[in-house]
């Protein structure tokens, strides 16, 4: 388990195909076992291996890399122990050079979640999660992320479900809600899924 800077908040990552490491993230965070973990990739091209994509490639490239998590149908390639309770998976390609290089260097996707105890605030500096350090193999200090005085900076990525063709639903507003919805509606004509 390693702590890494992202384009939104600090995260904890491990190899998504390593079931013991995935269990370790839940244990580290005290996270509810029914809350899914996202996967992190270095490039849009790799997304097709782990997800069934039902939107235009250009839509993916308009939103990724960036502060957005896209929820899609998972493929058979993904570790069965990662979010075994759902056929969906959130995919993140952060707009952060170090994390993208790290993801490219790994043989498979990274599992990624925020570096904090579940239900506590997201972290923008490594000192804010120092209570987790003893349980981490490595802490990569990328300096402060965003404006640490601004509450908006702690919102994390905007999570949008694109698993139903022609529709989208916002799972978490996050920090990029307005531009994300604008791209989905105006450029691609997707409509909000009824609640």
Automatic annotation (TrEMBL):
<feature type="domain" description="YrdC-like">
    <location>
        <begin position="1"/>
        <end position="176"/>
    </location>
</feature>
<dbReference type="GO" id="GO:0005886">
    <property type="term" value="C:plasma membrane"/>
</dbReference>
<keyword id="KW-0809">Transit peptide</keyword>
<keyword id="KW-0963">Cytoplasm</keyword>
<comment type="subunit">
    <text>Interacts with RSC1A1.</text>
</comment>
<keyword id="KW-1003">Cell membrane</keyword>
<keyword id="KW-0496">Mitochondrion</keyword>
<dbReference type="GO" id="GO:0003725">
    <property type="term" value="F:double-stranded RNA binding"/>
</dbReference>
<keyword id="KW-0808">Transferase</keyword>
<dbReference type="InterPro" id="IPR017945">
    <property type="entry name" value="DHBP_synth_RibB-like_a/b_dom"/>
</dbReference>
<dbReference type="Pfam" id="PF01300">
    <property type="entry name" value="Sua5_yciO_yrdC"/>
</dbReference>
<dbReference type="GO" id="GO:0006450">
    <property type="term" value="P:regulation of translational fidelity"/>
</dbReference>
<comment type="similarity">
    <text>Belongs to the SUA5 family.</text>
</comment>
<dbReference type="InterPro" id="IPR006070">
    <property type="entry name" value="Sua5-like_dom"/>
</dbReference>
<dbReference type="InterPro" id="IPR050156">
    <property type="entry name" value="TC-AMP_synthase_SUA5"/>
</dbReference>
<comment type="function">
    <text>Cytoplasmic and mitochondrial threonylcarbamoyl-AMP synthase required for the formation of a threonylcarbamoyl group on adenosine at position 37 (t(6)A37) in tRNAs that read codons beginning with adenine. Catalyzes the conversion of L-threonine, HCO(3)(-)/CO(2) and ATP to give threonylcarbamoyl-AMP (TC-AMP) as the acyladenylate intermediate, with the release of diphosphate. Participates in t(6)A37 formation in cytoplasmic and mitochondrial tRNAs. May regulate the activity of some transporters.</text>
</comment>
<dbReference type="GO" id="GO:0061710">
    <property type="term" value="F:L-threonylcarbamoyladenylate synthase"/>
</dbReference>
<protein>
    <recommendedName>
        <fullName>Threonylcarbamoyl-AMP synthase</fullName>
        <ecNumber>2.7.7.87</ecNumber>
    </recommendedName>
</protein>
<dbReference type="GO" id="GO:0000049">
    <property type="term" value="F:tRNA binding"/>
</dbReference>
<dbReference type="GO" id="GO:0005739">
    <property type="term" value="C:mitochondrion"/>
</dbReference>
<keyword id="KW-0472">Membrane</keyword>
